[in-house]
Specification:
The complex is a heterodimer of chains A (about 200) and B (about 230). Chain A contains ten helices and no strands. By secondary structure, chain A is mainly alpha-helical. By secondary structure, chain B is an all-alpha fold. Chain B has a domain at about 30-175. Chain B has eight helices and two strands, in the order H-H-H-H-H-H-H-E-E-H. Chain B has helices at about 1-15, 30-35, 40-60, 70-95, 95-100, 115-120, 130-160, 180-200; strands at about 160, 165. Chain B has a two-stranded antiparallel ribbon. In chain B, a hairpin with a 2-residue loop joins strand 1 and strand 2. The chains are: A mainly alpha (about 200), B mainly alpha (about 230). At the A-B interface, helix 2, helix 3, helix 4, helix 7 and helix 9 of A face helix 2, helix 4 and helix 8 of B.
């Protein structure tokens, strides 16, 4: 139980996927102009991350038992691509309102490296099933936190007077650097709380 | 023959500066930020991605008339993931130090936007030869941009270059440059300089562009009301 919460909090704060591990930078820079879209994208990511971990964990056990570890990357990315397609179809058919709000973000998730990243990290760290779920939930919630905070920061940049050649992406990246710096303030929190 | 040669050469050179994947097309930002802490890691990453890019570009271009349009993205992903696995195991076997430096980012070349972006944006419309040249050019452009950032970050952040300590600054380096905030900061500065140079030459500043992004080709961009523009 202790490890569960240590990994969960670790993935949100100290090991934030976007700000400390540089996973999922494309949607972080691209879909963070408005808070609404940032939340929509992040909820879709949390959903797919949790599902992908739940499906990939037993598959990986099977691969390891058969000595087919070299197929990991191929199997995982295909599972993620299939899951995204499956979730899109199911939502479209049975949950129309949810599809209308999340549907447009789903195709972007297949190529989001945070999703494949969390599955690969779980395998590399030899987490058990519960801790794997904690790590994927933490990764998703950390992604949400980073996106929402950054959407707020970006709203301010849009209206400020900055040198011409810093307009657009350069200023966005420098702002991301400052947000990332603030997350470094959490360093050591997890160690002190859980003594791991 | 001479005619095709004159056409192929620009395909090779455009990836260096005009369409540099990292600084002009804004693709592959994740490895750029994560792996640019040491020059050795950056070159390793660049070469690994270049090899994958050349092979997948050639394969996808050769298969472009066989792969049905509707399932092309899963097909590309399968081809790319297989190639990445081959490269990953080769690196693991022969260059264990590089493998350790790249860590999880080596298998993550699979979802590197440069590779899927070039597959969907270039290789599926061009001949094998042109695609190989495009792959070489883009790969070198990626490696060059990554190395430039790595040199800045390694010299400032750990006072060394390629692992060799630089006398005078290695005692008190500015540690923040090799930490995550330094990555964003250096990338922002380098891009600002590139924008300045590009605007002076009459070219537009770098921006996230849907035309290069494989993710939202069919549905359009969430942020621009499904019209396409600047997302992902």
């Amino acid at each position: 139980m202790r490890e569960f919460f240590a990994v969960l909090l670790g993935c949100i704060l100290t090991g934030n996927f976007v700000l400390a591990r540089f996973l999922g930078i494309c949607p972080f820079l691209g879909v963070s102009k408005k808070v609404n879209t940032a939340v929509g994208m992040s909820v879709a990511v949390i959903f797919v991350m949790a599902l992908a971990t739940a499906v990939c964990y037993p598959l990986n056990v099977l691969l390891e038992r058969k000595g087919l570890e070299f197929l990991q990357t191929v199997v995982f990315i295909l599972v993620i691509a299939a899951l995204v397609q499956f979730v899109e179809t199911v939502l479209k058919k049975y949950m129309k309102p949810l599809y209308n709000s999340l549907g447009i973000y789903l195709p972007l998730i297949t190529t989001n490296c945070a999703v494949l990243g969390v599955v690969l990290i779980n395998v590399q760290e030899h987490y058990n099933f519960a801790v794997s779920m904690a790590s994927s939930l933490g990764a998703g919630v950390g992604f949400l936190a980073a996106m929402v905070i950054f959407a707020g920061v970006r709203g301010r940049i849009e209206h400020s007077d900055i040198p011409d050649f810093f307009k657009g992406l350069p200023s966005t990246l420098i702002a991301a650097s400052l947000v990332s710096l603030s997350f470094m303030g959490f360093g050591g929190v997890i160690d002190n709380l859980f003594g791991v | 023959m001479a005619d095709t040669k004159t056409k192929l050469l620009p395909e090779l050179t455009k990836g260096f500066i005009q369409e540099n994947p990292v600084l002009r097309l804004v693709l592959g930002t994740c490895p750029t930020l994560a792996i640019s802490t040491t020059l050795t890691g950056a070159v390793g990453m660049g070469v690994a991605a270049t090899i994958v890019l050349i092979i997948t570009n050639a394969l996808i271009s050769a298969l472009r008339k066989v792969i049905p349009d509707k399932v092309r993205i899963p097909c590309y992903i399968t081809i790319i993931a297989s190639m990445v696995t081959v490269v990953q195991y080769l690196v693991k076997a022969y260059l264990p130090d590089i493998d350790k430096a790249l860590g999880i980012y080596l298998p993550l070349i699979t979802v590197n936007c440069i590779i899927l972006g070039r597959a969907d944006g270039y290789a599926n419309r061009h001949t094998v030869a042109a695609s190989v040249f495009d792959g070489v050019g883009m790969g070198i452009g990626f490696t060059a941009a990554l190395s430039a950032m790595a040199i800045l970050r390694e010299v400032l952040g750990s006072g060394s270059i390629g692992g060799l300590a630089i006398p005078g600054i290695s005692a008190n380096p500015i540690l923040i440059f090799i930490l995550p905030p330094g990555g964003f900061f250096v990338y922002g500065l380098v891009m600002a300089v590139c924008n300045k140079l590009a605007v002076r030459k009459g070219k537009p500043a770098a921006a996230l562009d849907c035309a290069n992004c494989p993710g939202c080709g069919e549905t359009g961009c969430p942020e621009n009301d499904r019209q396409g523009g600047s997302v992902c």
